[in-house]
Specification:
By secondary structure, the chain is mainly beta. It has one helix spanning 73-91, and strands spanning 14-16, 22-24, 55-59, 64-67, 130-131, 136-145, 148-153, 158-160, 164-167, 193-198, 204-210. A hairpin with a 5-residue loop joins strand 10 (193-198) and strand 11 (204-210). The two termini are 57 Å apart.
């Protein structure tokens, strides 16, 4: 939440929202540092006893849509149409023609052209609505809705299971650097490496060899 902005019509001030626009604190917006944020989905606790806190998924498609809730069939169809347009712009490959040539000389009986359907507003994630191939997502659970499968991320977003596959993390991990450790340190990668000591006169003296 950004800094408060004074303005007429809002006694407690306006606050800029991360997604754009402002909200009035006097009319439903609660701004408090001592209260936990409201979330419709509580994220799972991280696995602090393991190397990685969550399971992860790899985004396998360009312009994969990410939603803030599970989309219905019509919304998925609209998302596929919008993705096709975005992919055409990304790759430079034009979309296939939706129909053949229109005969403008024929008899239309004076009928008015059909009104285009109302656009469907997609429940896209405000922060990252379209994902790039190669993204990694922290995964919380798998969802099954009307014969379709989705992943819910640890932050509560939803992606189609066909756009993301589970990623098995490598088994190596780092180690904690404690206060008792001395620096700098190095790695010996050659046998009989000489060990030097910096003397008081500023000159290096050979102290031995390292194995």
């Amino acid at each position: 939440m950004g800094e408060k902005v004074e303005g007429t019509g809002c006694a407690k001030g306006f606050y800029p929202l991360p997604t754009g626009g402002y909200a009035c604190a006097s009319k439903g917006l609660v701004v408090a540092s001592d209260k936990a944020p409201f979330m419709s989905y509580e994220p799972p606790p991280p696995r602090v006893d393991q190397a990685l806190p969550y399971d992860y998924g790899y985004v396998r498609k360009w312009n994969a849509p990410m939603f803030w809730r599970v989309p219905n069939a019509k919304e998925l169809e609209e998302a596929a149409s919008q993705r096709a347009v975005r992919e055409s712009e990304r790759t430079g490959v034009p979309l296939p023609s939706a129909g053949g040539d229109t005969d403008t000389d024929g008899d239309t009986d004076g009928a008015e052209p059909a009104e285009p359907p109302e656009p469907i507003k997609l429940p896209l994630s405000p922060a990252e609505p379209w994902l790039e191939k190669g993204y990694f997502l922290s995964l919380a659970e798998k969802l099954h809705e009307e014969g379709r499968m989705f992943w819910r991320t640890a932050r509560g977003a939803v992606v189609s299971a066909g756009d993301v596959y589970g990623y098995t993390a490598k088994d190596f991990q780092g180690h904690e650097l404690t206060e008792e450790m001395d620096f700098p340190f190095g790695y010996v990668n050659k046998k009989s490496t000489r060990l030097f000591e910096l003397a008081e006169d500023g000159k290096l003296k050979v102290k031995g060899n390292l194995e």
